């Protein structure tokens, strides 16, 4: 297993006071709380932080940890010394708000032997398995059509000896069509195993997130798309076809359209009881004046159509 | 690695799901008192049914979990939690708007 530098994780000096440690914890907890932070590794960081704080906030555990010495580097291969923890009694310190089942092997090897909770199955002890949460990233097309996805989970699994290992489990899960970003699917009984005979398993929650799409953006159930049009299509009106998640559809560009005008394709967004719309923003693109004919055409237009696009700016040219 | 071929069909926790107070307590493993406190703080918005019972939407499950996580991990009271959740919702909405505007 790897050595964990709890001081480094918390960003404090080895001689930091208990107050400094508490302050550092509060600050980092706000920053990396998985319900607040958008950083990709927030959950991992928050777990690590909880573990570091669990040790450093308790003077006894901290003292024991300090005895390992300061020569270890974060991530270095580590084995606890054979005489580890003689003379320490962690049983009174207890495990407080942090979820001890999420702690690393490193923590477990140093402090885990003193736990009085579920890692020892004694006398008819029963506990419901823990609820598990996982993120599921799907494409907008999958959200539109619905899909079946494989989900891999790393589950903490108790061996017979009370030590913990990770066990991987793969599930096939139906994702219903019209699911929105942030919505969750609850799979009853697919969470962590219960502890003890007859204890029910926990539930599994999958939170859906969308992969970035090369064409579409999404807000709620509405889909947004930019569509380029030629100047004459915008001025004269045109029938064009635009892509939607459900395939190509015909759309009328009304005469006199301008860049930035928005057109709504009803019910072409994500499906559902309240189906979303597709909102098309027009972008006028001008053909480059690279040929003689093109230059002349622009010249004719300039002469035939008096037009000052900067009228509102009241500039001289 | 254990591989399970069977396709699992879960419940989509959207606004079409309706849960009673008892059901939501059971699902979130909390007591009714906790749910009542969250309603009082304006974190949950139950709908009154015709029979005078409360109904919660599937969205409330996530709301309860996030509220209790924030309260426990960051040591804030429920008024603070309510504010954080409202602001997070707003940030989420603004992030989506920014994404749309950035491509325009």
Keywords, separated by commas or semicolons:
heterodimer, A: 317 residues, alpha+beta, HSP40/DNAj peptide-binding domain, 3 domains, 4-stranded mixed β-sheet, 3-stranded mixed β-sheet, 8 helices, elongated, B: 5 strands, 57% helix, 18% strand
Report what the structure shows.
The complex is a heterodimer of chains A (317) and B (104). Chain A is α+β, with helices and mostly antiparallel strands and 317 residues long. In chain A, the strands form 4 sheets. Chain A has a 4-stranded mixed sheet. A 3-stranded mixed sheet of chain A has the order 1-5-4. Chain A folds into 3 domains: 6-127, DnaJ domain (Helix Hairpins, Orthogonal Bundle), CATH 1.10.287; 132-210, HSP40/DNAj peptide-binding domain, CATH 2.60.260.20; 217-304, Sandwich (HSP40/DNAj peptide-binding domain). In chain A, 24% of the residues lie in helices and 25% in strands. By secondary structure, chain B is of the alpha+beta class. Chain B has a 3-stranded antiparallel sheet. In chain B, a hairpin with a 5-residue loop joins strand 4 and strand 5 (54-57). The mean pLDDT of chain B is 88. The A-B interface holds A 26, 29-30, 33-36, 46, 50, 97, 128, 131, 148, 167-174, 176, 179-180, 182-188, 190, 203-204, 206-207, 217-220, 224, 226, 260, 273, 281, 283 and B 1-14, 16, 27, 29, 58, 61-62, 66, 69-70, 72-75, 84, 88, 92-93, 96-97, 99-100, 103-104. Strand 3 (164-175) of chain A pairs parallel with strand 1 (2-9) of chain B, so a sheet runs across the interface.
In short:
The complex is a heterodimer of chains A (317) and B (104). Chain A has 8 helices and 11 strands.
């Amino acid at each position: 297993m790897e050595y964990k530098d709890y001081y480094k994780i918390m960003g404090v000096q080895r001689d930091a006071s208990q107050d400094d440690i508490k302050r550092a914890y509060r600050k980092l907890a706000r920053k990396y709380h998985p319900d607040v932070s958008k950083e990709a590794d927030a959950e991992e960081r928050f777990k690590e932080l909880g573990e570091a704080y669990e040790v450093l906030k308790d003077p006894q555990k901290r003292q024991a940890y300090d005895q390992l010495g300061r020569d270890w580097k974060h991530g270095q291969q580590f084995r606890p010394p054979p005489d580890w923890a003689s003379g320490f009694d962690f049983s009174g310190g207890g495990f407080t708000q942090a979820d001890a089942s999420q702690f690393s092997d490193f923590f477990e090897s140093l402090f885990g032997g003193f736990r009085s909770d579920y890692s020892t199955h004694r006398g008819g002890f029963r506990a419901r398995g823990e609820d598990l949460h996982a993120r599921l990233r799907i494409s907008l097309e999958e959200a539109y059509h619905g899909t079946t996805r494989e989900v891999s989970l790393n589950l903490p699994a108790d061996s017979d000896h009370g030590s913990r290992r990770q066990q991987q489990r793969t599930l096939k899960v139906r994702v219903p069509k019209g699911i929105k970003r942030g919505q969750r699917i609850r799979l009853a009984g697919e969470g962590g195993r219960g502890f003890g005979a007859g204890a029910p398993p926990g539930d599994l929650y999958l939170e859906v997130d969308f992969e970035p799409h090369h064409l579409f953006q999404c807000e709620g159930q509405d889909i947004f798309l930019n569509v380029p049009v030629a100047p004459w299509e915008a001025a004269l009106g045109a029938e064009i076809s635009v892509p939607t998640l459900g395939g190509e559809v015909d759309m009328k560009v009304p005469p006199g359209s301008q860049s930035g005008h928005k057109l709504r394709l009803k019910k072409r967004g994500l499906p559902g009881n309240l189906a979303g719309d597709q909102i098309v923003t027009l972008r006028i693109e001008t053909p480059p004046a690279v040929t003689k004919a093109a230059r002349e055409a622009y010249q004719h237009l300039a002469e035939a159509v008096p037009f000052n696009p900067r009228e509102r700016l009241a500039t001289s040219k | 690695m254990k591989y399970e071929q069977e396709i699992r069909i879960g419940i989509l926790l959207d606004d079409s799901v309706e849960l009673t107070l008892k059901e939501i307590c059971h699902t979130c493993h909390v007591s009714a008192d906790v749910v009542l406190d969250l309603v009082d703080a304006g974190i949950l918005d139950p709908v009154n049914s015709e029979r005078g019972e409360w109904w919660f939407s599937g969205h409330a499950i996530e709301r309860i979990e996030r509220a209790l996580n924030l309260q426990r991990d960051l040591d804030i009271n429920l008024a603070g939690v309510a504010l954080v959740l409202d602001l997070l919702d707003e940030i989420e909405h603004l992030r989506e708007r920014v994404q749309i505007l950035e491509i325009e």
